[in-house]
């Protein structure tokens, strides 16, 4: 009898875990579908809620069954039901990418009990057990906080890829929400601005910290949280300037750094803190240089990715595996930590300067930045 009860309990937990994972993916794909609306309409100054999505060729409104994320495009075989106008494959890609990110972030952040967060010790338990026990409210809030940052930067990268300028209101709202929520909910910044170089923490301190901190949300303004936000904002500005310096003071028609790219790094600094924005800026600059080196001699338009695409890619890795991508002074001396951090900061402008030089040799300066492709402009718009 006891064995049957244990089996029933474990099966219920398994069903809960599967349902929660599916819910995260579906919710992410729905948000990705709305993100397609933002990417297309907001740079043009259009209302993102009205009118209803329709085919630009035959003006037929898209039916609800055809507007399902991912499935709608597959069922229509990538064409308008009425006039057979091609629908760009980029729409289901955005939906699937957003859904996959929501699912992975839930697994590595909430389900694991914070196993991959930098600095913060993980929960003692993981999986559905800790969720049912109410020990993950802080991680759930962090999940929402990080997800919002990701979808804003993802939309910004796609807007720049289309040759459009990132709308100010998209960036300003993200900035205000990041500062506002971050200032009043300390758990949204698990990595403080100043970290001791002690490599060991007493078991008593860990236990007291867990009893006070894990699973709860403390609403209120704390000095340490304000310091973390100020340092993150300051270093976000510094990294943004160093990352975009090739065109910041001398705009050029051909560049992988479109206007307002530096804003994306400022947002990362506000949401993640100064340690992680430094690591992200360095890794994004390094990956951009590797891409440019591998693309020399190739003039295809598809390879003309903006630098924001690499910022978003590294941000995704940072949010999922920040524990392994962020260098913290836990097991090294102050001097060693300063040297490593200084090297990353100095390397950022060097790497982006080299990327800009290679880009100008690969792409003729007489050509302007990419515009929305013919296929996309003729596809169903949202």
How is this structure best summarized?
The chain is an all-alpha fold and 382 residues long. It is 62% helix and 0% strand.
How far is the first residue's CA from the last residue's CA?
Answer: 56 Å
Helical stretch tally: 14
- What is the subunit organization of this protein? single chain
Mean pLDDT: 82
- Total of domains: 1
Organism: Gimesia algae
Domain Prepilin peptidase A24 N-terminal: 26-107
GO molecular function: aspartic-type endopeptidase activity
Pfam family, one: A24_N_bact
Write a structural description.
GO terms for molecular function: aspartic-type endopeptidase activity. Keywords: Membrane, Transmembrane, Transmembrane helix. InterPro entries: Prepilin_pept_A24_N (IPR010627), Prepilin_peptidase/N-MTase (IPR050882). It comes from Gimesia algae. This is Leader peptidase PppA. With 382 residues, this protein is mainly α. It has one domain. The protein contains 14 helices and no strands. α3 runs parallel beside α12, α8 runs parallel beside α11 and α11 crosses α12. The longest helix is centred in the N-terminal third of the chain and has 40 residues.
Chart the SSEs and their pairings.
Layout: H1 2-41, H2 71-75, H3 90-111, H4 128-132, H5 137-161, H6 168-184, H7 203-213, H8 223-243, H9 245-248, H10 261-272, H11 274-294, H12 307-325, H13 334-362, H14 374-377
Helix pairs in contact: 1-3, 1-5, 3-5, 3-12, 5-6, 5-10, 5-12, 6-10, 8-10, 8-11, 10-11, 10-12, 11-12, 11-13
Transmembrane segments: 20-40, 139-158, 170-189, 201-221, 228-248, 263-289, 301-322, 334-352
Keywords: Membrane, Transmembrane, Transmembrane helix
Protein name: Leader peptidase PppA
């Amino acid at each position: 009898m006891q064995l049957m009860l244990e089996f029933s309990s474990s099966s219920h937990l398994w069903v809960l875990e599967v349902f929660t994972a599916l819910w995260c993916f579906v919710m992410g794909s729905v948000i990705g579908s709305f993100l397609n609306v933002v990417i297309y309409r907001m740079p043009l100054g259009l209302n993102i809620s009205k009118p209803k999505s329709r085919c630009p060729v035959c003006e037929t409104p898209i039916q609800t069954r055809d507007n399902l994320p991912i499935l709608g495009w597959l069922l229509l075989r990538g064409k308008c039901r009425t006039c057979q106008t091609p629908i760009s494959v980029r729409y289901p890609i955005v939906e699937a990418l957003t859904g996959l990110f929501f699912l992975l972030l839930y697994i590595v952040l909430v389900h694991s009990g914070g196993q991959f967060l930098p600095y913060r010790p993980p929960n003692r338990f993981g999986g559905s057990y800790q969720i049912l026990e109410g020990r993950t409210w802080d991680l759930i809030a962090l999940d929402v906080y990080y997800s919002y940052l990701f979808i804003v930067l993802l939309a910004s990268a796609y807007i720049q890829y289309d040759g459009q300028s990132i709308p100010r209101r998209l960036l300003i709202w993200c900035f205000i929400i990041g500062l506002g929520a971050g200032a009043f909910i300390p758990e949204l910044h698990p990595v403080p601005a100043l970290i001791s170089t002690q490599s060991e923490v007493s078991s008593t301190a860990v236990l007291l910290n867990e009893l006070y901190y894990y699973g709860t949300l403390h609403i209120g303004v704390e000095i340490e949280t304000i310091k973390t936000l100020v340092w993150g904002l300051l270093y976000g500005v510094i990294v943004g300037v160093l990352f975009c310096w090739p065109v910041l003071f001398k705009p050029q028609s051909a560049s992988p750094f479109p206007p307002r790219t530096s804003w994306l790094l400022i947002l990362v600094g506000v949401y993640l803190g100064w340690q992680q924005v430094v690591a992200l800026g360095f890794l994004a600059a390094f990956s951009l240089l590797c891409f440019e080196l591998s693309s020399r001699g190739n003039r295809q338009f598809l390879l003309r990715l903006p630098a924001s695409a690499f910022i978003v890619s590294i941000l995704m890795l940072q949010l999922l595996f920040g524990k392994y991508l962020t260098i913290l002074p836990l097991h090294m001396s102050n001097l060693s930590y300063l040297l490593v951090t200084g090297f990353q900061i100095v390397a950022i402008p060097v790497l982006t300067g080299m990327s800009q030089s290679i880009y100008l040799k690969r792409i003729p300066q007489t050509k302007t930045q990419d515009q929305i492709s013919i296929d996309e402009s003729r596809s169903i718009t949202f």
